[in-house]
Amino acid sequence: MNDTPSFSNVSFGTQIRKSPFTDAALRWGAKGFSVYNHMYIPRDFGDPVQNFWNLVNEAILCDVSVERQVEITGPDAGAFTQFLSCRDLSKMQVGQCKYVLITDQDGGIINDPILLKLAEDRFWLSIADSDVLLWAKGVALNSGFDVTISEPDVSPLQLQGPKSRDILRAAFGDGPADLKYYWFQELNWDGIPLVISRTGWSSELGYEIFLTDGSAGDRLWEHLMAVGGPMGLRPGHTSSIRRIEAGMMSYHADMTLANNPFELGLDRLVDLDMETEFVSKSALSRIKASGVTQRLVGLEIDGEPLVGSNDAFWSVLSDGQKVGYVTSSVYSPRLAKNIALAMVSTGASGQGSAVTVETNVGPRPSTIVPVPFYDPKKSLASKS
Fold first, then answer.
1. Are residues 105 and 135 in the same domain?
2. What is the pLDDT of residue 4?
3. At a CB cut-off of 8 Å and minimum separation 6, what does 159 contact?
4. Cα–Cα nearest to 326, from 300, 347, 350, 346
5. How much is the pTM?
6. Which domain holds residue 318?
7. What is the mean pLDDT of the chain?
């Protein structure tokens, strides 16, 4: 561990919240933070390429408390949760997780959370970076649904990588280690209630550990590092390299409120045939009938390795005309390629199409390719 720096070196003031794990992350080498859901998230533990190799070869522990939980409880919790989402939830069981979309009255994507069903009358939306709590409260007002909507004291860690199952078993026993993909289990650890799910933002084998008592943040982090360190566990941060390889979209980068599920290729998360009404049903029916004018695609960008990620939406050109923009880009050391996600006009979105990307180091010849770029069947994350 490094000498712990003062948090004042990275703090923006009291309007941005620390997590229960912020101090532990600093002790274990966090060098920089970003802001997500009005909270600090560690984004720098040194070399991001080494962080990637730690993830794909061993395991990393990440503070993702910024994935806040919007809790929906009450007699109508199930019906209201369905009303928010365009995915059919009628067969969802207690103990199950689902990737869902929260869409507005125009079909725009407000958020793409993981939904956890804790009871027939209790749900968590584990959210990306937008104010779902306020949206859900607004929708509930005068809706007639008997629900209570709140943000509980719940802060997740991500334990991700091929060694994560063995580390989790050593830390908490066989139960959570044997979870099926996209299921969770409640666990009492040393008097602290936890929820452990077989999920994560890496497309590797991994788990999320939801701490329900913020005062125990240090204890939980140190326990996992003490158990996992000898097994290869390293502190880290969510890997842009790995998530772009996997074609995993990041809210505000690859999708915004201006986007609908069909242009993102997320048709599987929209069920217009279910009898139940939901907020965006009419709008998404119209969009599907009329078709979309743009689509999210994969790109391979020629030339020398790009440094870091794009901090602007680089233009994508076809025959000298702008047809779209790059949303996320990175150099993959495993694939030895520059890869990117881009939103381009439907007419220019065919696989194999040659385009030009105006990068920060000049124009680069590029090719539209399928996504994901690696492990398209998610066999690493879902393996038993």
1. yes
2. 63
3. 59, 60, 61, 167, 168, 200, 206, 207, 208, 209, 224, 228, 233
4. 300
5. 0.95
6. 293-372
7. 96
